[in-house]
User: Fold this.
Amino acid sequence: MRARREIVMSAGAFGTPQILMASGVGPGQHLQDLGIRPVLDAPGVGQNLQDHISALLIYRSLVTDHTVGISPIGVARLLAGMWQWRRHRRGVITSCAAESGVYYRTSPDVEVSDMEMELIVGIGDDHGRKLHLGHGYSAHLLLARPKSTGEVRLASPDTTVAPLIDPRYFSHPYDMETLVAGTRIALDIMSQPVFDPYRGDMLIHYDRDDPDQIERTLRDHADTEYHVCGTCRMGPDGDPMAVVDSRLRVRGLEGLRIADASVMPTVTSNNINAPVIMIGEKAADMIRSDA
Ligand SMILES: Cc1cc2nc3c(=O)[nH]c(=O)nc-3n(C[C@H](O)[C@H](O)[C@H](O)COP(=O)(O)OP(=O)(O)OC[C@H]3O[C@@H](n4cnc5c(N)ncnc54)[C@H](O)[C@@H]3O)c2cc1C
Assistant:
């Protein structure tokens, strides 16, 4: 590929390192193992994969009020909501169903919140992929500052073949310890009297007083929050794992920048879409001022 000025890559935390490695920019030995001629030995490409590991406390609801669900009344409300939206541009279907959230600390010694919880007015099992009859609500828990890091490697030099993604969730002990503590606090919140009229059985049981049971259940059910980032991270001169410099230029090459979630050195402490948009805006400013 040729460009008169420069190329800006924005293929995301999986796509950008994949394309770079397939183009010969990445960990030299890994590229050679796949028969790719290295253009630049950049050991940081594909490393430092980060994400917010997340878990759900899902409750069946004793009543259908204030929740979305699969039931005759749930469907009727949805149809009425569609009509309301067409007429007035408001109502139930304008809701993202996770409108309230809280940031909290797992211990008074923690300086800033290390957990996020969103309240979802529905059963959000497996990111909504597993459907259940009836109504419910869920507490969606995110570990705000995970310390585990994973990696993206190539399965093949062909970019139409999916890369090998290993998030290595819970590889740092801090993550499990904090998520267990955060889950216990969330269970306390969800057992407050205000939820009494609604609270039915939990879909996946967590035992507030048994941290080992919580840990086992998290290992079985916690998974991605889709906040993947960090695989071409920014870093200072002299850092061999830094893929881009402070102006998003790929170190060791000319005319190549990266503007997506892969440049984040560490995952932000909450949802990353807005910060990624800010990276794009900042990249546009830098490209203009460097032109
Ligand atoms: C299901 C889901 C739900 C999410 N929910 C939220 C949320 O509620 N709040 C929040 O803050 N964030 C959320 N996120 C995260 C947010 O969407 C991402 O952090 C953000 O979009 C990352 O932006 P990006 O530019 O780095 O990558 P992307 O938005 O992934 O863009 C990368 C683009 O590159 C393209 N691409 C990749 N490989 C190639 C290739 N080989 N050739 C050509 N094109 C390629 C892709 O098709 C894609 O269009 C969610 C993500 C997912 C997947």
